[in-house]
Amino acid sequence: MASATSSSARHLFDESKKRLCARVGENANNLGSVARQVVRGSKSNEIMHQTLKNFTQVDVVSDYSHQNLQKMTLILQHVGYQYDVMQDSVNHLDYLKEQVTAMER
Predict the structure, then answer these.
(1) What's the pLDDT score for residue 12?
(2) What's an example GO cellular component term for this entry (predicted)?
């Protein structure tokens, strides 16, 4: 009877050991799945962070470009004024040449 009890205890121990190993394997698979999700999530977070950083840089560059365009428009306007003044001076020179020619006669 002692051998029967010992045999059934050994069988029970082996069965428990197999179930425990199976559960540990399942938990390891679940843990691996969770770990993959965490890695994906962290990579997604990194991608979102990089995208936001790039968008911010583009926004800053766009703002600087807009400011530079406004400055260039102002410079173009001033160059236009200077052109008009030089054109008037050229026209005035033609008038002065006519007067000098008239005085020489």
Answers:
(1) 72
(2) BORC complex
Residue 30 in tokens: 């679940």
Give me the helices (H) in the chain, please.
2-104
In the predicted structure, residue 2 carries a pLDDT above the cut 60: no
Q: Count the alpha carbons within 13 Å of 102 in the hemisphere toward its beta carbon.
A: 6
Report DSSP state, residue 56: H
Cα separation, 10 vs 46, whole angstroms: 53
Phi-psi region at 47: left, alpha or beta (left = phi > 0; alpha = psi -120 to 50): alpha
3-state secondary structure of 1: coil
Rg (Cα) of the chain, in Å, rounded?
45
- Cα distance between residue 19 and residue 21, in whole Å: 5
